[in-house]
């Protein structure tokens, strides 16, 4: 049996990742600030209360799961970092919170769980990024969010180099523009179009994919 750990699992893309993997018979460690939101989903699901920026709680969970192999770790939790992005109205608190959740927390989680993933069969360390974090595709607005995801991308590239000796596969994924609380109703994709495609993509990842930035449909994205 394969095992996956998912952060931000109570709603949006994270919740559907839980449902998809549980339906395929995987053991699912579903981490959420409100684990009660996960009750009633069928499958081998262990819900854990986790605020991703509470690094003591992250370490404690890694300790609780010590000895377990985690085939796929999905750093999904994220915030939109909404601010009025015109010069003169930058909000430092929004920046700090956006970077804390979108950039630092995934690294702290990767650090805490690296050995759990390294001892598994699949050894896949995934982070949900965004094409808005691509410097090559830079556009107006969303400064904090774009910068937090660009920094996440850089860090995941570094992780892919630093963990290559352990046979890990570190990949950043863009889920598409998806109809979630974050994506909004105007988004072009439904959750059902995005998450199953990402699950299929993650399934097929090989060692040669280590260090890539990939769209939900498998297309390469420019850094
Ligand atoms: N939707 C899109 O179009 C889109 C596009 C590109 C990238 N993404 C990325 O995909 C990921 C999931 O996005 P989504 O659309 O599903 O967003 P969402 O609907 O807003 O859900 C965000 C999830 O992250 C969790 N979260 C936020 N801050 C957290 C924290 N400090 N500790 C623990 N959990 C936290 C939320 O938990 P609570 O329920 O407790 O708030 C929620 O489960 C994010 O990383 C996002 O940047 C989304």
List the helices and strands and how they pair.
Blueprint lengths: L2 E4 L5 H12 L3 E6 L11 E6 L5 H10 L7 E4 L16 H27 L5 E5 L14 H20 L6 E6 L16 H14 L8 E3 L8
Parallel strand pairs: 1-2, 1-4, 2-3, 4-5, 5-6, 6-7
Helix pairs in contact: 1-5, 2-3, 3-4
Bound molecules: NADP nicotinamide-adenine-dinucleotide phosphate (NAP).
NADP nicotinamide-adenine-dinucleotide phosphate (NAP) binds next to α1.
Briefly, what is this?
The chain is α/β, with parallel strands linked by helices. The chain contains five helices and seven strands, in the order E-H-E-E-H-E-H-E-H-E-H-E. 37% of the residues lie in helices and 15% in strands.
CATH topology term:
Rossmann fold
Number of strand segments: 7
- Helical region count? 5
What is the CATH level 1 assignment?
Alpha Beta
Instruction: Kindly give the count of domains.
Output: 1
Radius of gyration in whole Å, from Cα?
16 Å
Structural class: alpha/beta
Shape: globular
Estimated helix fraction: 25-40%
What binds here, in terms of ligands, is:
NADP nicotinamide-adenine-dinucleotide phosphate
Report the span from N to C terminus: 35 Å
Low-confidence stretches: none
> CATH architecture, please?
3-Layer(aba) Sandwich
Output mean pLDDT: 96
**Widest sheet: strand ordering:** 3-2-1-4-5-6-7
Q: How is the biggest beta sheet arranged?
A: 7 strands, parallel
Oligomer: single chain
SSE string = EHEEHEHEHEHE
- Strand proportion: 15-25%
């Amino acid at each position: 049996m394969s095992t996956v750990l998912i952060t931000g699992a109570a709603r949006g893309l994270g919740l559907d990742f839980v449902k998809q993997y549980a339906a395929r018979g995987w053991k699912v460690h579903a981490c959420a600030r409100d684990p009660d939101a996960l009750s009633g989903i069928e499958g081998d699901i262990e819900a854990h209360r986790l605020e991703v920026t509470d690094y003591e709680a992250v370490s404690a969970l890694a300790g609780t799961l010590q000895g377990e192999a985690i085939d796929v770790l999905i750093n999904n939790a994220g915030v939109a970092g909404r601010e009025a992005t015109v010069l003169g109205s930058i909000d430092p608190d929004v920046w700090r919170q956006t970077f804390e959740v979108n950039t630092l927390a995934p690294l702290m989680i990767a650090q805490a769980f690296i050995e759990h993933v390294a001892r598994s069969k699949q050894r896949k360390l995934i982070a949900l990024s965004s094409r808005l974090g691509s410097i090559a595709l830079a556009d107006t607005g969303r400064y904090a969010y774009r910068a937090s995801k660009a920094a996440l991308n850089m860090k995941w590239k570094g992780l892919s180099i630093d963990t290559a000796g352990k046979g890990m596969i570190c990949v950043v994924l863009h889920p598409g523009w998806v109809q979630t609380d974050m994506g909004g109703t105007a988004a072009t994709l439904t959750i059902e179009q995005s998450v199953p495609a990402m699950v299929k993509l993650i399934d097929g990842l090989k060692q040669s994919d280590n260090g890539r930035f990939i769209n939900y449909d498998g297309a390469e994205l420019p850094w």
